[in-house]
Specification:
Number of helices: 14
Structural class: alpha/beta
CATH class of the largest domain: Alpha Beta
Strand content: 15-25%
Oligomer: single chain
Strand order of the largest sheet: 9-8-7-6-10-11-12
Shape: globular
CATH topology of the largest domain: Rossmann fold
Amino acid sequence: MKSEPLCIDCEKRLGHLESQELISHEAKQLLEHPERVIQAELPLSRDDGTLEMLKAFRIQHSTKRGPAKGGIRFHQEVDPSEVAALAFVMSLKTALLDLPYGGGKGGVQFNPKEYSKTEIEQVARLYMRAFSDVLGPHKDVPAPDVNTTPEIMGWMRDEYAKITGADEPAIITGKSVAEGGSEGRGTATAMGAYFILKERFADQEPESVSVAIQGFGNAGSILAKLLHKDGFMVVAVSDSRGATYNKAGLDIDAVSKHKSGGNKISEFTDGESISNQELLALDVDLLVPAALGDAITTQNATDVKASVIIEVANGPVTTGAEQVLDDQGVEIIPDLLANAGGVTVSYFEWFQNVHEEKWTEDEVNQKLQGMIADSYHLTKQAAQKHKVRLRDAAYKIAIERILN
């Protein structure tokens, strides 16, 4: 009996590639099913003495190129389909960057905002106990994801050492620098996107490139500062509560100071208050969705006037919206490449741990720039050769590396 794929989104994406004759039917069949799905029930003892069972997952999509690699998220909506989709993306992302990894992902189904720090630490340690037999520096290397932190990674590393009797820092990445983490990890996602944009706009004066950035969290704010420092004209930025816009360009350092003071970005005095939807429709050269997935849909894609979009968030452009944007001639630099700086520097952390090395932030960024730029140009060349979108070219490169 034929088994149904766990990840419906993966099946759809692979089906599109097959229809474009970019991959074979056999490749589609091999990749739409993860190698391994592990589920556990974590017995959490609440602070009030009650027992609560939490569903936990670890899915290894592929280990053909090396240890599975992927984060662990703590969220009430975690389920096997979501985790499988994320593991699939990690397989492709590590292959596209030519890292010696496969793809994995994990999660626990609960809302950590409703639990104490003591309870969250217990969940972290229970997770490691439940999955320690399938995790390891050369088997499957987790990292932080939604609602997990360097501190949580430290608890998991400590628990793994208790279980195995050996302290192996390479069991997990995203640790604090003091715990064996890498310099440059906190800025890696933004730096990766920045290095791609330096290549993309290398033949233009930065001052001539107008930019709007949706999302002023870690990645969005750091990227805004990097582009502003380089002379790019960042005309709009936003947070979840609204945006600020100045056609002549914003002083990003002043916006950051305003935001860090607990103020709304939309109330920045040297800018016009606009909505997030209005930001997406601005007439700019570069649009950076750096917040949530599904920001650009078929409902608002026709409003987009930017000529280039770089997906710093995961999945900010829906499949339907991408077709609309493609018809409008909008170039999309896909998330598979655009936000791969994080996993690349996670690999650097793992490498430093395994080889007992310590790199400076400058060394990390220099190595990251080389790998990201090479991957961007390879993807661009493949897109031109096959006359397809950058996203399809990135998938084709990654899949060929996984299967060959």
